[in-house]
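Design review, sub-item: ligand-bound model
Attendees: FS, YL, KQ
YL presented the inputs for the CU-O-CU linkage complex:
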Amino acid sequence: MTHTHRSPSRISRRHVLAGTFGIGAVAALARIGIGTSFAEETTEAVTLATAAGGTLPIPDLLAATDEDGVSVYALDAQTGTNTTLVSGKTISTAGYNGTFLGPTIQLTDGQSVRFDVTNNLGEETTVHWHGLHIAPSNDGGPQNTIEDGATWSPATTVNQGEACTLWYHPHGLGTTADQVALGLAGMMIIDDGSDANAALPHDYGADDIPIIMQSTAVTTAGAFATANNNFTASTSTLKFLVNGMSATDETPTLEVAYGRVRLRLLNASLTDSITIARSDSASFTQVASDAGLLAEPISITSLRISPGERAEIVLDLTAADDAVKLQATVRNTTNGTRYTASMLSVTSTATSAADDLPDTLNTITDIDATDATTRTFTLSNSGASMLINGIAGTTMDIMDANAVMTTLGAIEQWTITNSSTNIYHNFHLHDVPFQIVSVAGAAPTGANTAWRDTIEVAPGTSVVIKMQFTDYADNEYMYMLHCHNVIHEDDGMMLALMVMS
Ligand code: C2O
Ligand code: CU
Ligand code: CU
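KQ shared the predicted structure:
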């Protein structure tokens, strides 16, 4: 076991936020047909906010109900509409416990949890816990379909061994891009109880802030784009959303009472990569990759985040005279710049400087891959058909017939090659995080030396990764591996992985 497991601690720091999400929307929540009482009491509104006075909306923390020591989190996938994002257009949206995005689920290692996911979308869905180390039968992949009107209730003990920022989103075969585009995405935060995590800003909504970024396009028909040509059409309206607020129309502002703020960045875009930088080009600190804390904080001046990836950064606010402003440069799959958005302006009311950050954040034990099983995965495209090893995973029969088979405990080393001539792909693996052996032939640097679950692969290059399949096996349910450009995923760039006992 290569994770550094720390003893779980029960840190209760639930904050009831006067979040800007949800104001005035409570009346809209008196829905009919939710069978369980806790689904109603934990329903928290999330709306697609546009220029609501400029303040960054912050998704609420989802409160759990305790059922004999099990924390039960209720999510209700539902539809909505938005009439303010693009004037004159009524856009169909969807969200969890609200009409756009979803509440943040904060978990602690060792906690017993159950998620009660009710589907009120009017069509089939699934909910996948991206990055969560969980059994395949509870992973929320294409086999875990939830019929319209039904509730799915996976239960597990949080077994992550890392402090990290994860997320949840639909994962139906061929419908992921359509459903994520509507707004079905939420953040999940895991606390490993470590001293390092406690030494970083960790007060949700106060100095620990979720930042869900979505590069979207609204078509002339008034729908969120789900295909590449909709993003490039001159008639489409491009919007950069931050926690559902349009930064394209007004820069979201955030005022904190601390000298430092931790931002948990998630690129929940369908297809675009996002490069974050300060508008004054000054450095900032990265403390976590998408799957755990870095070994030590690193100072960077820009940070590229491909679709599905997360990164945690810390901004030092007392060192700045003025607001710290972040900008996002958004690029399409051929790396062409679509636009630059002024995405966030952060100020602090603190007068004294914050304590130093810890020098060491994590102990990352190198996986010994000397005797690893090796495999090669080639990502390619044939026109719009997206392939892994020549296979387009577009039906469950194809997924079954081509499943990658491994065994519980196996250590493997995979070479992921992008053989598309000019299209960027990335590679995401369910179940366990991986370590990076090389990127385009070079040893990894920076956040690539930490645990990862999603990694970009530039055209004509290879990334070598290694992992160990610990704890969970199933002879019926599959994990997935795929490109997290979800348009590519839906077009076939996905295969199944079976971990056999
Ligand atoms: Cu975020 Cu298989 O997905
Ligand atoms: Cu995933
Ligand atoms: Cu791709």
